[in-house]
Write a structure and sequence with these properties.
It is a single chain. This protein starts with a helix and ends with a strand. It is globular. It is α/β, with parallel strands linked by helices. The chain has one domain: Rossmann fold (3-Layer(aba) Sandwich), CATH 3.40.50. The protein has a 7-stranded mixed β-sheet with strand order 1-10-9-2-6-7-8, sandwiched between helices. Strands 3-4-5 form a 3-stranded antiparallel β-sheet. Helix 5 crosses helix 6.
Amino acid sequence: MRELFDVRFGTSGHSLSLINNTYSWLDEPIATKTSILRGLKKIGQQMNADEDVLFLTLSSHGNENIIQLANPPLAMENLDAAWLREALDASGIRWRVIVVSACYSGSFIDELASPTTVVITASAADKASFGCTNTAEMTYFGQAFFAESLRGNTSFESAFKDARLRVNERESAMGFEPSEPQMVIGSLMETALPAFEQVLFDKTRPPVASIIDSDSIAINIVEDSASGQPVANTAITAN
């Protein structure tokens, strides 16, 4: 996923990764609620609150209002929707695009939604999502949205619709109950998003994305399929 953001959205050289994997302890800082909170605050200090946009993704095992954080043998608290909303508000970051890929991830929508936020989830609040295994590089939704649809579309909504169709086809072929991915766009973000996307997806322009013409910020919390542990990757774009 980090490669996608570096190549597609120009975050190379402007990123911080928080990873929960025993094999990367010497190379990358680990992902905890403390490190995520500090990362958000640091990012918020570097952003223009009126113009810059945060892109936050979370992908792990989940339950209602919960994203799992685990890195044995360390003991960690799980990440819950209310805590994440508080952390985002405390950071001062106003404009947000948030993707949550986990079972029951639709339960995060009510807490995270705001007029200046886009919330995309891999499933409805009462549905499981699929593909979170030790042999898969991404979940079904992660593969469809990040690896496939974002590469070929020029808006988040079109990428989501494409990904939702891909996921539905795959789940149907596997005989799984539909996960019913969700997308909610805040009223102010609905007006501002086209300008943000025009810059973000325009490959002929410098890798900068914002509501007007400034910077884009991306934080990714994803599943490390090799170890089965959740991973948090934080990428900061600042020109």
